[in-house]
Request: fold
Amino acid sequence: MDTDLSSQDRKDLDKFIKFFALKTVQVIVQARLGEKICTRSSSSPTGSDWFNLAIKDIPEVTHEAKKALAGQLPAVGRSMCVEISLKTSEGDSMELEIWCLEMNEKCDKEIKVSYTVYNRLSLLLKSLLAITRVTPAYRLSRKQGHEYVILYRIYFGEVQLSGLGEGFQTVRVGTVGTPVGTITLSCAYRINLAFMSTRQFERTPPIMGIIIDHFVDRPYPSSSPMHPCNYRAGEDNGAVYPSVEDSQEVCTTSFSTSPPSQCVFTVTKAHFQTPPPVVTDTLKVPVMGLAFSHQLSSSRLSYQPAALGVGSADMGYPVLFAGGLNAAHPHQLIGPGKEGGVPPIPSQPAHGTQADQERMCTPLDGVHYSAATPSSSEDTETVSNSSEGKCGSPHDLLETIFIRKVGAFVNKPINQVTMANLDIPFAMFAPKNVELEDNDPMVNPPDSPETESPLQGSLHSEGSSGSSTGNTHDDFVMIDFKPAFSKDDILPMDLGTFYREFQNPPQLSSLSIDIGAQSMAEDLDSLPEKLAVHEKNVKEFDAFVETLQ
Amino acid sequence: MVGPGRICRCAPPRATPAMNCRAEVLEVSVEGRQVEEAMLAVLHTVLLHRSTGKFHYKKEGTYSIGTVGTQDVDCDFIDFAYVRVSSEELDRALRKAVGEFKDALRNSGSDGMGQISLEFYQKKKSRWPFPDECIPWELWTIKVNVVNLANEQERQICREKVGEKLCEKIINIVEVMNRHEYLPKMPTQSEVDNVFDTSLKDVQPYLYKISYQITDSLGTSVTTTMRRLIKDTLAL
Reply:
């Protein structure tokens, strides 16, 4: 047997390794998109499914991977690494995982390239599919969008594990021996994040605006840019950039005086000093810019307009539009964070995304509504984000969204939207959720459910605020948590709040010992009667026992 | 020709030496309502690794392999998600088996201990009148212990704990798979039904069978316990 690889085998092997590397990257990034992946089995080979597995190829990701590889293949000392990190709305970022595809020198000369190696690579990809759902970052990535996003970065060369913090753990996905070396796929992941995971990020103050350039290629020290784990096929990033610039000038991040549950998208005042009727127009103009940028961001983030806090696909934030804010507060702009504005997005990977897209719908009315109501002081109008089924309105792009909530002391004009009147002043002192879990403090602030549900109810019978709670709440597997007709005038509590509040009911009294003891005494008393009855039926019982023996 | 959907050449069939059946045991403690999802997660993960695309044989003993799709499954009662093969038939078959197991566990009246086994086997044709032999080459056993929880808070903790445990199990399974130990040789067209289950229309798992056993705490069979219980009651 030749110790050297035949040239055909060598070529095949190189091809396998190259495509294996590309597919590995696809699997990892797709697993961190935050969506459920679903591909179909096909009994007839299509000729394009490497390793006999249906793994979609996201063009952006392939492009990045090829760029990183630059025509090379993983070899000893040259590993391909996919770094998954988390970035909060405030700009803090943290590495979560590093997936490494390495090659070592241990060769298996005997192995058949075109057969065994290929099948083992296929098995390794399946293992990768399984393992990517098992590391802590998976759950984080499923919840991304609101306060943080998941980014990926591909690099080639030395593995850098220093960013993972101390005590990181490693899991080996698998190895495949080849005649030129052994391919190893492993993942090193940060563990101390696991505890802060959902809780930590739900406690952070909400995103007060988005820096659009988070989602644009940016120079990183290691010269390879971070990318959001997101997929919008056919998105032409280049075209979007110019408007991104515009929106950057338009937007500033700022915190409002309102309670922390607010997700406010602020715009510099200059744009909003025009009188209300004009506001409509000016609203539209910058929003256009934002619409594009949102397209970028939403295209980057699968249904997470995230930091925008805007119309994240899974939540219906009521939209608050600040009409005439006074000098102290920058005007609040509603970002276009709405999936409805993303119709050009073709083939969504999974059901989840579709559902989200459907959810993102800002009503036409809402926009007009907000525009129509003038306000002279700091007040906010609420435009409810219906987040309910595609409106398919031509205004989709312009739909602004989502500011959640009003400040407790915000003045509202009388002629304002009816629903705004339902804003409860001093809402923060309203009965709070008594939750034992620490989850989603983002949504726990008492006023947010109260203001949201009545507000939404007015425009739509959607208690989409529930979704905001639902989304971040661990127990809610489904993202689309919008209980219909859940508006409640009397008890300003949406279903999500209700659920959480009553999730820990007190123990049933029948389970407590006292009652048990009492009934025991009664039981004992009634025993003689029961015995008498049994004695009468002795014959039947005997017959029964006979059958058992 | 190599690449996706490539044609493979099968090795000519050879007499296989007697093989030891590789056995793996996993243990989980779950709440009653989590049994189904936990079992499905483990079984699907194993079958993901033990299924290929459908074989299409061509002349000269070559064959092409279909494509296996995958999909994510979120568990409702466990903080956990897993990947399974996109095959409704396979999913139905597993759900049926797990459903029976769950019912048996519930009806047994015992402490809720049982085990479910997934065995991969090869058929070896015997001469008539003897039936075909089923030779197992891999056996996965999942031991289940059903716990009862008193309140919602414990249930919430259980959700998370079981989720973490299942993550560990998945890693264990992958580790075993990665050892690249014995796998039946790729069969010729005439032999394919001895190695693979070709009855499904979209994927082709290795021949497998699922069985289960319910045990009570004393290890005795369930009937004896029931008998004893009734006798005790009557003796009052």
About this structure: Chain B has a mean pLDDT of 83. The longest strand of chain B covers residues 133-147.
